[in-house]
Specification:
The protein has 6 helices and 5 strands. With about 140 residues, the protein is of the alpha/beta class. A 5-stranded mixed β-sheet has the order 1-3-2-4-5, with helices on both faces. A hairpin with a 5-residue loop joins strand 4 and strand 5. It holds the Pfam family Thioredoxin_7.
Length: about 140
Protein backbone atom coordinates (compact mmCIF):
# COMPACT_ATOMS: atom_id res chain seq x y z
CA UNK A 1 0.00 0.00 0.00
CA UNK A 2 2.83 2.41 0.84
CA UNK A 3 4.41 1.83 -2.60
CA UNK A 4 1.18 2.89 -4.32
CA UNK A 5 0.99 6.01 -2.15
CA UNK A 6 4.63 6.84 -2.87
CA UNK A 7 4.10 6.37 -6.61
CA UNK A 8 1.13 8.75 -6.56
CA UNK A 9 3.17 11.40 -4.76
CA UNK A 10 5.82 11.26 -7.48
CA UNK A 11 3.42 12.07 -10.28
CA UNK A 12 4.03 15.63 -11.35
CA UNK A 13 0.98 17.75 -12.06
CA UNK A 14 0.06 18.74 -15.61
CA UNK A 15 -1.15 22.29 -16.14
CA UNK A 16 -3.26 23.54 -19.03
CA UNK A 17 -2.64 27.29 -18.97
CA UNK A 18 0.81 28.63 -19.87
CA UNK A 19 0.30 31.94 -18.07
CA UNK A 20 -0.36 30.11 -14.80
CA UNK A 21 2.57 27.78 -15.51
CA UNK A 22 4.91 30.73 -16.08
CA UNK A 23 3.92 32.26 -12.75
CA UNK A 24 4.57 28.96 -10.99
CA UNK A 25 7.86 28.41 -12.84
CA UNK A 26 9.08 31.88 -11.87
CA UNK A 27 8.06 31.36 -8.25
CA UNK A 28 9.69 27.91 -8.03
CA UNK A 29 12.68 28.68 -10.32
CA UNK A 30 11.77 25.92 -12.76
CA UNK A 31 11.60 25.45 -16.51
CA UNK A 32 8.39 24.64 -18.38
CA UNK A 33 7.87 21.57 -20.54
CA UNK A 34 5.11 22.27 -23.07
CA UNK A 35 3.74 19.21 -24.85
CA UNK A 36 1.42 19.41 -27.86
CA UNK A 37 -0.59 16.22 -28.23
CA UNK A 38 -3.51 14.62 -30.00
CA UNK A 39 -4.58 12.34 -27.18
CA UNK A 40 -7.19 10.39 -29.12
CA UNK A 41 -5.73 10.22 -32.65
CA UNK A 42 -1.94 10.69 -32.63
CA UNK A 43 -0.22 7.33 -32.06
CA UNK A 44 3.24 8.78 -31.32
CA UNK A 45 1.63 11.24 -28.87
CA UNK A 46 -0.07 8.42 -27.01
CA UNK A 47 3.14 6.37 -26.85
CA UNK A 48 5.15 9.39 -25.65
CA UNK A 49 2.64 10.11 -22.90
CA UNK A 50 2.25 6.49 -21.72
CA UNK A 51 5.85 5.32 -21.99
CA UNK A 52 7.77 8.48 -21.17
CA UNK A 53 5.87 11.44 -19.75
CA UNK A 54 3.71 9.42 -17.33
CA UNK A 55 6.59 7.12 -16.36
CA UNK A 56 7.85 7.53 -12.76
CA UNK A 57 11.45 7.83 -14.04
CA UNK A 58 10.48 11.00 -15.91
CA UNK A 59 7.92 12.22 -13.38
CA UNK A 60 10.43 12.20 -10.53
CA UNK A 61 12.77 14.53 -12.43
CA UNK A 62 9.87 16.68 -13.63
CA UNK A 63 8.58 17.18 -10.11
CA UNK A 64 11.79 18.93 -9.05
CA UNK A 65 12.78 20.62 -12.32
CA UNK A 66 9.72 21.41 -14.45
CA UNK A 67 6.26 22.83 -14.63
CA UNK A 68 4.41 20.59 -17.10
CA UNK A 69 1.92 22.02 -19.59
CA UNK A 70 -0.20 19.98 -22.00
CA UNK A 71 -1.91 21.48 -25.04
CA UNK A 72 -4.15 18.69 -26.26
CA UNK A 73 -6.02 18.65 -29.57
CA UNK A 74 -8.42 15.69 -29.47
CA UNK A 75 -10.52 15.03 -32.57
CA UNK A 76 -13.29 12.73 -31.33
CA UNK A 77 -16.46 14.50 -30.29
CA UNK A 78 -16.61 12.62 -26.99
CA UNK A 79 -13.10 13.87 -26.10
CA UNK A 80 -13.61 17.54 -26.97
CA UNK A 81 -12.28 20.07 -24.50
CA UNK A 82 -14.31 22.98 -23.13
CA UNK A 83 -14.34 26.03 -25.43
CA UNK A 84 -12.12 28.04 -23.06
CA UNK A 85 -9.44 25.32 -23.08
CA UNK A 86 -9.66 25.00 -26.86
CA UNK A 87 -9.02 28.76 -27.14
CA UNK A 88 -6.04 28.55 -24.76
CA UNK A 89 -4.58 25.61 -26.71
CA UNK A 90 -5.13 27.33 -30.06
CA UNK A 91 -3.30 30.43 -28.83
CA UNK A 92 -0.41 28.23 -27.65
CA UNK A 93 -0.30 26.52 -31.05
CA UNK A 94 -0.31 29.86 -32.86
CA UNK A 95 2.76 30.93 -30.89
CA UNK A 96 4.71 27.69 -30.36
CA UNK A 97 3.43 25.18 -32.93
CA UNK A 98 2.26 27.09 -36.02
CA UNK A 99 3.07 24.16 -38.33
CA UNK A 100 0.88 21.76 -36.33
CA UNK A 101 3.46 19.07 -35.50
CA UNK A 102 2.38 16.26 -33.18
CA UNK A 103 3.82 15.39 -30.81
CA UNK A 104 5.84 18.53 -30.26
CA UNK A 105 7.56 19.08 -26.93
CA UNK A 106 9.28 22.32 -26.00
CA UNK A 107 11.48 23.22 -23.07
CA UNK A 108 10.76 26.82 -22.12
CA UNK A 109 12.36 29.09 -19.58
CA UNK A 110 10.14 30.59 -16.88
CA UNK A 111 9.33 33.54 -19.17
CA UNK A 112 8.15 31.28 -22.00
CA UNK A 113 11.25 31.58 -24.21
CA UNK A 114 12.03 28.38 -26.14
CA UNK A 115 15.19 26.66 -24.87
CA UNK A 116 14.89 23.43 -26.88
CA UNK A 117 12.39 21.63 -29.12
CA UNK A 118 11.71 17.92 -29.67
CA UNK A 119 9.73 17.46 -32.88
CA UNK A 120 8.02 14.06 -32.77
CA UNK A 121 8.59 11.31 -30.25
CA UNK A 122 12.23 11.62 -29.12
CA UNK A 123 12.56 7.83 -29.16
CA UNK A 124 14.20 7.72 -25.74
CA UNK A 125 13.34 5.78 -22.62
CA UNK A 126 11.73 7.74 -19.80
CA UNK A 127 15.01 7.80 -17.88
CA UNK A 128 17.03 8.91 -20.92
CA UNK A 129 14.52 11.63 -21.80
CA UNK A 130 14.52 12.82 -18.17
CA UNK A 131 18.32 13.04 -18.27
CA UNK A 132 18.27 14.98 -21.55
CA UNK A 133 15.61 17.43 -20.39
CA UNK A 134 17.40 18.03 -17.07
CA UNK A 135 20.73 18.54 -18.85
CA UNK A 136 19.20 21.13 -21.18
CA UNK A 137 17.39 22.89 -18.33
CA UNK A 138 20.56 23.00 -16.23
CA UNK A 139 22.55 24.34 -19.19
CA UNK A 140 20.07 27.21 -19.51
CA UNK A 141 20.99 28.41 -15.98
CA UNK A 142 17.72 29.71 -14.65
Amino acid sequence: MMNIFYALILLATWHYDLDEAKQLAQKEHKHILLNFSGSDWCGPCIVLRQEVLDNPAFQQMADTTLVLVNADFPRKKKDQLPARQQAINSALADKYNPDGHFPLTLLLDADGKVVYTWDGNPGLSAAAFATEVKKRADADHL
